[in-house]
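Fig. S4 source data, part A: sequence.
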Amino acid sequence: MNGMKALPDMPPVTWETADTLVDYEAAVARMEAHANAMARGEAGEMIWLLEHPPLYTAGTSADPADLVAPDRFPVYPSKRGGQYTYHGPGQRVAYVMLDLGKRGRDVRAFVAALEDWVIRTLDQFNVKGETRDGRVGVWVVRDDKPLTALGQNPEDKIAAIGVRLRKWISFHGISINVEPELEHFTGIVPCGITEHGVTSLVDLGLPVTMDDVDVALKQAFHEVFG
């Protein structure tokens, strides 16, 4: 992941944490404004940690058939990659505004670095996050659940990844399920995948707080991105 490391002369990344739920459209407007300012050389890199009110977002590959309950929560079209995603209280969203023009200009490496960031964060709570070919996001194998019809351990999604680049500036980012209302995910087919479930750190039996996750995110970020 060294291609995503900050250059020695780059200023440190700014971190900001919202202390109240943030409206989705307001968040996107701020992200886009900050990304544009970065492209003009008027702002530095930033990670914005927040939570949203309950809502669904439709990425650029979203299939309308995957919106099971269209009237349940607000639905927002999103310019990020991916399909339908749920955001809500108890889920840590990290919006990632980095200058990939100075970090290697490698989109695949960037997505892999985001996955590595999430996996290293989860590892601090002794949770083994894994990636799967053909499935975006980070998954955990549930050896505490009955085997599937194929005799395999079920796998649940614990983190989502969806990013967009403009002039090599990234925005959108990742989300980790800390303690969201998992039933809210039933209003969509998360990321278009029907054969696997969704979990959270608390659902896995871990008494983890949002502050705990934020500390872990910052430590793992510096390991991956410098």
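Fig. S4 source data, part B ends here. The chain has three helices and eleven strands.
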